[in-house]
Write a structure and sequence with these properties.
Elements: H1 2-13, H2 18-31, H3 34-37, H4 42-50, H5 57-62, E1 65-67, H6 74-85, H7 88-99, E2 115-117, E3 130-132, E4 137-139
Parallel strand pairs: 1-2, 2-4
Antiparallel strand pairs: 3-4
Length: 142
């Protein structure tokens, strides 16, 4: 029984996926050569690939650019007041809504910039909050 279990486990976790894994590995290494990754320590590589999980939300606020808004506009002050009262999980959900990811890229928060723009609608009460994830723009109706 032990031999059967050992052979079965070996097949399921090694032999049966060898070809698909080799195909994946070949494609991955073609786009991301292993020599490039050798310059990183394991924790640094994890940061580059996964991004930062700990976020200074006040620094994020300082990095925002405003279009059709001023930093002291009531809408902006209300937004940040509500935002900073949110639990960490909801803040990360906002980040995912804005950027498509709940983490800050490996380059760091000091280089992560997004914009808040007024969509300038005739009736802002009829608009929902929206975002352009490619351009990192939050469209915040007044």
């Amino acid at each position: 029984r032990k031999e059967f279990v050992d052979l079965y486990v070996n097949y399921v976790f090694d032999e049966s996926i060898r070809k698909p894994f080799e195909d994946f590995k070949r494609g991955f290494l073609r786009g991301c050569p292993v020599t490039t990754w050798k310059i990183f320590l394991p924790l640094e590589l994890q940061m580059v690939l996964q991004g930062h999980t700990k976020i200074d939300w006040h620094l994020l606020e300082k990095n925002v650019k405003y279009y059709q808004y001023e930093k002291l506009d009531q809408t902006i002050r209300n937004f940040w007041s509500v935002f900073h009262k949110l639990p960490e999980e909801k803040k990360k959900m906002f980040l995912a809504f804005l950027s498509g990811c709940d983490r800050i890229p490996g380059c760091g928060l000091e280089h992560f910039r997004f914009s808040i723009a007024d969509p300038q609608a005739e009736n802002p009460d009829e608009l929902c909050l929206s975002a352009s994830t490619c351009q990192l723009v939050l469209f915040l109706p007044r």
